[in-house]
Write a structure and sequence with these properties.
- The chain is an all-alpha fold.
- The protein has a domain of 147 residues: Orthogonal Bundle (Tetracycline Repressor, domain 2), CATH 1.10.357.
- The chain is built from nine helices and no strands.
- The radius of gyration is 19 Å and the shape is elongated.
Length: 211
Amino acid sequence: MSRIDEVGDAAIAVLAAAGTRGLTHRAVDAAGRLPPGTTSNYARTRAALLAITLRRIAELDAAEGAVQAGEAAEAVSAARAATTAVAPPLTVSALASLLAGMLHRMITDAAIRRRLLARFELAFEATRRPELRAAYDELGGAFRGQVARLLGLAGSAASDRDAWTLIAWLEGTAFYALAGAGGGAVPSPAELRAQVSLLLASMCADESGTA
């Protein structure tokens, strides 16, 4: 791992634990057990430190996305093997399981949870920093494209529009569980699957016209 990646990882940990007010060069050095002054060498300003943090989140999210893409490919293969009828390449059931598993990991996996909390912090900071807003929106656009592709495979006739709705549910549920009133009881994968299945039913239809 490169030193700048270590700075990014430490900044993510600081943001998740202490918020943007706690994000200082010295705090990042301490969190990453880096020699004093290391963070300042790579990020001379606070804006530069925020940019490094967001870039690192994007890299780690992309790596996680590659895992999810592999799971999606397996789900598509399984769906095709299960039927010889003319049907969408990805069943709604398989997509619901995929999304529920992904969301449950986001809420419960320690590393992904920290990254999500840090991203929430950066989202609020981006409302005050146009340069950060542009980078944050670029990150969100890439994820929206992935979700739209999966919805298209599952039979959505308006995958771009439906991706917006689905992401709003995913991020809203994650926020509710991590920072909102739902933090006292983490939803199970089965509960998440039941919820997202209802949402997908309004977006995707199989060959008989039902989800």
